[in-house]
Amino acid sequence: MFTVRDIYDLAIRIEENGERFYRQAMGEVSSPRLKKLLQWNADEEVEHREFFKEKKNALRDPQDMEDELAEQMSGFVLRDAVSDHAFSLEDVDFSRIADERELIRKAIGFEEDSITFYEIIGSFITDPVTLEEIENIKAEEKKHITLLEDLLE
Known about the structure:
Layout (H helix, E strand, L loop, with lengths): L3 H23 L5 H26 L4 H11 L4 H6 L17 H23 L5 H25 L1
Helix pairs in contact: 1-2, 1-5, 2-6, 5-6
């Protein structure tokens, strides 16, 4: 069963994967505009990661939080949701990406997966400040999608 610390660890991993994806993608594109957007997205992922690290480090009594969350998460709902490989981006082979449009579509898919993950973890978090921050991060992820979609047009 997952604990609240595990959830924060998963969120941190998603942000690290996103940062790595965007930084690697920067080396694969020629468009200065796209490089700048990918750099911005990578920097945003770093900010999100730091937020989740702070939240993890600020947990009040770890055992109380873990017990509360474990009760809420019976049924393996979160385990099933995060087992999807799309969250890890491990399958992205940049040598097989045909063009910048395909790269942008992959980035959009990653952002959509991130939003889905944050919606899932948001349903297990009761702290209103953390929930508000998760909503803010989701809004930023949606902004990333809009900017990426603009490049496709």
